[in-house]
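INTERNAL AUDIT FORM
Audit reference: QA-55
Scope: verify that the stored structure record matches its stored sequence.
Auditor: D.O.
Record contents follow.
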Amino acid sequence: MTLPPGVAARDFENALRQWERAVGKEWVFTSDADLDLYRESYSPFWHEPEDPVPRSAIAIPLVSPFPPRRGVGSRGPS
């Protein structure tokens, strides 16, 4: 795991643990394979020192503010 510039390993790991408690461990990503999905695909700096590589990613699960509609047909309420 690569650290963000200017952030101590202990502080970064503490922040990740807090995110894991907040959204669940399965939604906090730190592996290179996972973080590649968050990189800028068309960056001219790919694999260069200037490449802005993410150090972690948080993917919050989709939660609808509306409860599922039950008993309503495809045409909507009558």
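Auditor finding: record pair retrieved intact. The first helix runs from residue 9 to 23.
Action required: none
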